[in-house]
What does this fold into?
Amino acid sequence: MRRESTLKNRVRELRVRLELRQSDLAREIGVTRQTILAIEKGRLNPSINIALKAARVLREPVDYVFYLDPSSKKQLDTEEDQDKKTDPSKTAGRNPIWKLTAT
It folds into this structure.
């Protein structure tokens, strides 16, 4: 089973505080205004490069601007995980340490 957290951001909040328009922020980062809108609405997770540039322009650490929301963790079972539960031969020969360290 793996847990997945939702990437959240404070881009809009910080942009408004600095009195920047979406188009201003987009120009500084080198993306379109539509990209900023999609990031603010949570429809697009930015690349590391864009996240770092945004954090610099917004004058905050990148992990403050973009963060994982622990309250939105979802447990997901992939088909492979389901197979392993029902067929022990699927895990035969694998390193048992991997099982202990995987989250």
